[in-house]
């Protein structure tokens, strides 16, 4: 018995030789192998052999529960208890770890025919799951498992077989909640029999008892006095076990102290109560010769307080010992996660690794590599792509198709009576696979974690690979024959192993393409949470066969993409001769509609049946509009919304769902008065102050910019007294504002003035050159006939309409003086041209949103899965009859949308690539401007004056900026961000705003566009601030919050927030136009319009095809008036010009090499 959490079956080697190593060369049983510390009173280890009837009966009960068909006659058991042991502590490590202690127990029981091991873990869990080792620099997770000793031959050593139950922190953390015996925290294994292999227990049903509650309190005297305890001085290590849910028996073993201290030794508790109902055993030390067992029923877990644990497409059912979730008809899954039966699925994630290739002593290290998978469920075919994989590694990874094969197992075609991975485990589980290349004994460990379905409806996965693989030459191809793999199921754990081959064909040399075959062995363990109360969950065969064929592997060296594809079906163990496996439903050759289920018949017969909510012959299925066919399906006070395959009821305004979730009842009405709307407030006049509604009947008075006071009385601020202008400029004070003008002999904007005349603009220089071409210092000659002279306005900008003085032709130009195609007119006719430059911004009071004149031709643009749609706006109303798709981007998930009002371009982010793209509203192909070094780009914003694009990346946790063509990228922020999402610009004032929906500390932040002056704007009373918009006309910043279910606004330069609307469902994005705010809602699949002046929803639009709506923005017919310091000549910057309220910063892009870039403020 060793302190490091193992029972050795031979003399153990030195601990520095076996710590952090598994299997063990000397052989051992490991309930928690780690570098443990028992020195200086940090815990003790007790062991004894016990043959008392009570202890033997308890051990027999545990074993019988896990192996109901076993027959055995126990003579004695060995009990080993590690009590309050500590992790090995490294100097300088977190001091709180010094107080962590673990207690666990191992019981060895033998009969004439076989031997068993029982591992027990405490009710309240382990306190640490990994530990530092004296021969390792970093913390190493504990290991739970079994290892046979190596066999020494004359010239070589044969390693013994081994089994790993758990060796990652997540599994170790859940050891006390999981089980393979039906009792939480108790694990039973057959470790010695004729099979010479480790066999885990499988849960069996408990005998039924009729008493609803059975409490007992029994005082027992131990039948056998203890042996002297043994305290050891060297260390131990801790490990984890697969996770599993369910209300099982909690057992706490509080081991008594040694005999020398006058206490009884740790006892293996006597069990004298029926097992049907969940119970807790507390073992307390009392007098020297007594132990008291107190039993009480655990807190009942029911659907009433756990319904949120089930999928929205599942039903919850209560059982005597707990509850279970199960998917409704038409959906597949384990109840916690359900997906539409037959619908294609997407899996997204990241891959990292550290892999040695061949004899190369330097590993290939990569991280943050994208994995995307697409699954055709009706055919069980999974396509997986991993990018970017360097060429030095790409070809050598070709044999590892099972990296994506786990996804094939999840959605394999199910033969009758058998279940694929998603039906068993859902989308939350861990998988650890070990690949051994038999010829070279090289090994690779693959760890994958599935984290469920994300907000976009996609499964998420993380993959970690570490080890060594054989080298495959560049340009070679790999072929993998179809294969079968057996999956063995026990409670919350699935294991499989197989040995198969792959063939490598090397590139042709001298007309010959050499080929060779390599054998490799796969061993994997899948750990998941299982509902143990429903017996139908255990009806699946303990052993199933996964059949994999049509395996395709490819590495594209140009794109550095690794691709795997394979078809999968799950069924009984077969040699391939059975006809059942050839039915078209199982081979994917049925031809049923994607919204249909294939029903196998006899032989090769089958039928196609449309899924619930669809109608047709099975080969072509059409959505049923339940709302039209059953107008009263939702009852009174509710509206019905049709969805593909289903429908949704929503309560009308003033009503909400009752606790039954089906009936709409009236809300309690609060008689609140909005004095700001009613005009019954006592704030100063609107020209000097603003009334801000604060909920209920409260309001706040705040002076406008340029005025000071308490809001009830505001006076003009004389900005000229604050030296706001340049010393060589004159200041003009106006009510609520001011202006600056450089003195004579200086040039500039009044805030910055330098000696000399004002710098000429491009238009003025071209005009001067044209006029000078007809003059000379020596002679005066007329300007050549036909020469064009550009016309400039008072500010030096190009006049929007340019005319040729000789020919009389006129045309429109952009702000750079370039002719706009299609605008040239004949002599004497001037085209209607829009201004190329807006007048300077006026710093002064805001304008009421309902008084803003709205130019015609403005649209709403919003993202819906693989397309961007638009809805025309007429004044303050949506013209829903003219709504249509603007742009199709199939197989993409578009998240954020932004609009450049200057060039009429729409920009968007998409996470399935990931990438950032743009397209013109006038037509033309979309163009991807950024496709590298992106994680999950979501929010996007345009500075139309400075010609820059900003975006957030919620995976890389950073905010970046680039030119509108995607060049000159610069990271603005990469710290203090957790889940950045929405981002907007105030181009005129040079400000940037963004949200971070960090669940622990959500916030809204702001900074200047150059990244300076960063500060938190809002941090209190936020939940999930998803969407954000800034209205240039009213200077209001508004957001939607899916956590607080509110729409709110504020003026960033003033205190106070206004709750515009409460009780919204699940808003995602928001934009503003006129007096309205428009937000997208995931629950309603709609664009919702809110009149912010009266705080009331006034309209909504649901696209014809119902699905989630993502980003939304306003496509203005004309750009808002104003300019910033980057508007003209890029602010004089060589590269990025980033505006600030009073100036601008010239910045160089990241990773600038060999570029003449000048940074300055």
TrEMBL record:
Main location class: secreted
Keywords, sorted A to Z: Basement membrane, Calcium, Cell adhesion, Disulfide bond, EGF-like domain, Extracellular matrix, Glycoprotein, Repeat, Secreted, Signal, Sulfation
Domain EGF-like: 581-622, 623-665, 672-715, 716-752
Superkingdom of origin organism: Eukaryota
Domain Nidogen G2 beta-barrel intervals: 343-580
PROSITE patterns membership: ASX_HYDROXYL, EGF_2, EGF_3, EGF_CA, LDLRB, NIDO, NIDOGEN_G2, THYROGLOBULIN_1_1
Cysteine disulfide partners in this protein: 803-810
Chain intervals for the UniProt region annotation (Disordered): 229-271
UniProt signal peptide: none
GO MF annotation terms: calcium ion binding; collagen binding; laminin-1 binding; proteoglycan binding; Wnt receptor activity; Wnt-protein binding
LDL-receptor class B repeat boundaries on the chain: 904-946, 947-989, 990-1034
Matches recorded under SMART domains: EGF, EGF_CA, G2F, LY, NIDO, TY
A Gene Ontology cellular-component term: plasma membrane
UniProt cross-references to Pfam families, sorted A to Z: cEGF (PF12662), EGF_3 (PF12947), EGF_CA (PF07645), G2F (PF07474), Ldl_recept_b (PF00058), NIDO (PF06119), Thyroglobulin_1 (PF00086)
Known role: Sulfated glycoprotein widely distributed in basement membranes and tightly associated with laminin. Also binds to collagen IV and perlecan. It probably has a role in cell-extracellular matrix interactions.
PANTHER family registered for this protein in UniProt: NIDOGEN-1 (PTHR46513:SF6), VITELLOGENIN RECEPTOR-LIKE PROTEIN-RELATED-RELATED (PTHR46513)
Name recorded for this polypeptide: Nidogen-1
Organism of derivation: Pelodiscus sinensis
């Amino acid at each position: 018995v060793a302190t490091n959490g193992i029972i050795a079956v031979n003399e153990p080697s030195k601990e520095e030789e076996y710590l952090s190593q598994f299997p063990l060369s000397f052989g051992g049983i490991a309930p928690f192998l780690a570098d443990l510390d028992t020195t200086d009173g940090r815990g003790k280890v007790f062991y004894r052999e016990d043959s008392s009837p009570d202890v033997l009966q308890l051990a027999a009960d545990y074993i019988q529960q896990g192996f109901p068909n076993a027959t055995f006659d126990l003579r004695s058991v060995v009990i080993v208890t590690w009590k309050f042991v500590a992790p090995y502590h490294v100097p300088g490590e977190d001091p709180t770890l010094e107080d962590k202690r673990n207690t666990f127990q191992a019981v060895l029981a033998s009969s004439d025919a076989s031997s068993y091991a029982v591992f027990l873990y405490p009710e309240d869990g382990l306190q640490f799951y990994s530990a530092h080792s004296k021969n390792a620099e970093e913390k190493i997770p504990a290991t739970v498992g079994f290892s046979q000793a190596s066999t020494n031959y004359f010239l070589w050593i044969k390693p013994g077989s081994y089994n790993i139950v758990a060796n990652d922190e997540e599994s170790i953390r859940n050891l006390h909640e999981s089980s393979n015996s039906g009792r939480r925290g108790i694990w039973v294994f057959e470790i010695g029999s004729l099979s010479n292999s480790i066999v885990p227990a499988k849960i069996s049903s408990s005998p039924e008892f009729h008493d609803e509650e059975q409490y007992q309190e029994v005082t027992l005297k131990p039948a056998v006095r203890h042996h002297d305890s043994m305290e050891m001085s060297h260390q131990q290590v801790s490990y984890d076990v697969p996770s599993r849910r369910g209300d099982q028996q909690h057992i706490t073993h509080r081991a008594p102290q040694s005999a020398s201290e006058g206490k009884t030794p740790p006892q293996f508790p006597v069990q004298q109560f029926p097992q049907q109902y969940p119970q807790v055993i507390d073992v307390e030390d009392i007098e020297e010769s007594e132990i008291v067992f107190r039993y009480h029923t655990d807190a009942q877990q029911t659907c009433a307080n756990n319904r949120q644990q089930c999928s929205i497409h599942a039903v919850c059912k209560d059982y005597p010992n707990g509850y279970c979730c199960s998917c409704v008809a038409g959906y597949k899954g384990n109840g916690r996660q359900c997906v539409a039966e037959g619908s294609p699925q997407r899996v997204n994630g990241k891959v990292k690794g550290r892999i040695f290739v061949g004899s190369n002593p330097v590993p290939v290290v990569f991280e943050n590599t994208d994995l995307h998978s697409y699954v055709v469920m009706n055919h069980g075919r999974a396509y997986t792509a991993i990018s970017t994989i360097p060429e030095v590694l790409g070809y050598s990874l070709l044999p590892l198709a099972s990296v994506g094969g786990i996804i094939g197992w999840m959605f394999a075609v199910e033969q009758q009576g058998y279940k694929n991975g998603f039906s068993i485990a859902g989308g939350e589980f861990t998988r650890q696979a070990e690949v051994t290349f038999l010829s070279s004994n090289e090994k690779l460990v693959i760890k994958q974690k599935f984290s469920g379905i994300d907000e976009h409806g996609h499964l998420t996965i993380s993959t970690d690979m570490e080890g060594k693989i054989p080298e495959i030459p560049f340009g070679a191809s790999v072929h993998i024959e179809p294969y079968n793999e057996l999956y063995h199921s026990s409670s919350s754990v699935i294991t499989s192993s197989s040995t198969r081959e792959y063939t490598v064909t090397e590139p042709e040399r001298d007309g010959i393409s050499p080929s060779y075959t390599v054998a490799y062995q796969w061993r994997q363990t899948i750990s998941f949470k299982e509902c143990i109360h429903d017996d139908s969950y255990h009806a699946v065969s303990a052993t199933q066969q996964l059949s994999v064929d049509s395996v395709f592997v490819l590495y594209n060296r140009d794109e550095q993409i690794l691709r795997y594809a394979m078809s999968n079906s799950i069924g009984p163990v077969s040699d391939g001769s059975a006809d059942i496996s050839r039915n078209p439903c199982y081979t994917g050759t049925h031809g049923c509609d994607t919204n249909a289920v294939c029903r196998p018949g006899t032989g090769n017969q089958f039928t196609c049946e449309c899924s619930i909510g669809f109608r047709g012959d099975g080969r072509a299925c059409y959505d049923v509009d339940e709302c039209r066919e059953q107008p009263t399906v939702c009852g009174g006070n509710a509206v019905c919304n049709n969805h593909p395959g289903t429908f949704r009821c929503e309560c009308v305004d003033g009503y909400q769902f009752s606790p039954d979730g089906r009936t709409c009842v009236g809300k309690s009405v609060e008689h609140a008065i909005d004095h700001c709307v009613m005009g019954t407030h006592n704030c100063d006049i609107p020209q000097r102050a603003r009334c801000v509604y604060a909920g209920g009947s409260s309001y706040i008075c705040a002076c406008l910019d340029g005025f000071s006071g308490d809001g009830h009385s505001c006076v003009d601020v004389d900005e000229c007294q604050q030296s706001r202008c340049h010393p060589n400029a004159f200041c003009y004070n106006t009510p609520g504002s001011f202006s600056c003008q450089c003195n004579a002999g200086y040039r500039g904007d009044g805030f910055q003035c330098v000696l000399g005349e004002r710098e000429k603009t491009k238009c003025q220089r071209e005009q001067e050159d044209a006029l000078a071409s007809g003059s000379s210092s020596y002679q005066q000659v007329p300007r050549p006939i036909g020469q064009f002279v550009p016309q400039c306005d008072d500010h030096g900008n190009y006049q929007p309409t340019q005319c040729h003085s000789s020919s009389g032709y006129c045309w429109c130009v952009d702000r750079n003086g370039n002719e706009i195609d299609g605008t040239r007119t004949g002599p004497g006719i001037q085209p209607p041209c829009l201004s190329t430059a807006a007048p300077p911004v006026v710093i002064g009071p805001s304008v009421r949103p309902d008084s803003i004149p709205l130019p015609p031709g403005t649209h709403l643009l919003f993202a819906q899965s693989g397309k961007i749609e638009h809805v025309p706006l007429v004044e303050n109303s949506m013209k829903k009859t003219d709504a249509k798709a603007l742009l199709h981007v199939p197989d993409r998930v578009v998240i954020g949308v932004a609009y450049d009002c200057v060039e009429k371009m729409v920009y968007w982010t998409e996470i399935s690539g990931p990438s950032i793209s743009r397209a013109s509203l006038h037509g033309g192909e979309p163009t991807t401007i950024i496709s590298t070094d992106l994680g999950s780009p979501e929010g996007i914003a345009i500075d139309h004056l400075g010609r820059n694009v900003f975006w957030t990346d919620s995976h890389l946790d950073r905010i970046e900026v680039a030119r509108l063509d995607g060049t000159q990228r610069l990271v603005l922020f990469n710290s203090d961000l957790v889940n950045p999402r929405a981002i907007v610009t105030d181009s005129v004032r040079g400000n940037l705003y963004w949200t971070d929906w960090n669940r622990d500390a959500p916030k809204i932040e702001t900074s200047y566009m150059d990244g300076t002056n960063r500060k938190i704007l809002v941090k209190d009373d936020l939940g999930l601030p998803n969407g954000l918009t800034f209205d240039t006309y009213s200077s209001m910043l508004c957001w939607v919050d899916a956590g607080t279910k509110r729409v709110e606004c504020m003026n960033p330069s003033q205190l106070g927030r206004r709750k515009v609307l409460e009780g919204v469902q699940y808003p995602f994005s928001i934009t503003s136009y006129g007096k309205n705010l428009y937000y997208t809602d995931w629950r309603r699949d709609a664009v919702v319009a809110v009149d912010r002046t009266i705080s009331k929803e006034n309209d909504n639009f649901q696209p014809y095809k119902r699905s989630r709506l993502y980003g939304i923005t306003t496509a203005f017919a004309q750009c808002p008036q104003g300019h910033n310091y980057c508007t003209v000549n890029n602010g004089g910057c060589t590269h990025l010009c980033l505006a600030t309220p009073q100036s601008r910063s010239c910045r160089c892009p990241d990773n600038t090499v060999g570029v003449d870039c000048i940074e300055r403020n």
